[in-house]
Specification:
It is built from 4 helices and no strands. Helix content is about 70%, strand content about 0%. The protein has a single domain, classed as Cyclin-like (Cyclin A, domain 1). Helix 2 packs antiparallel against helix 3.
Length: about 70
Amino acid sequence: MRAVEILRTAERLKVTAGKDPTGLAAAALYIACRQSEKPCTQKEIAHAAGITEVTIRNRYKGLVRNLDLKV
């Protein structure tokens, strides 16, 4: 649920334009895991989503910066 909230906020603030939806979803999931202290790695999420860790890292940085998230 937290990942969905992050994505909805990002969409409302127009920070998702031109970004791959899979990468954004994976980064939002990673942020939600970190905020709730659930053990997960970028590697695990990247493998499950079929994207690279670099994509998650880049989208993660953008979401945290643009949404002013505490991680």
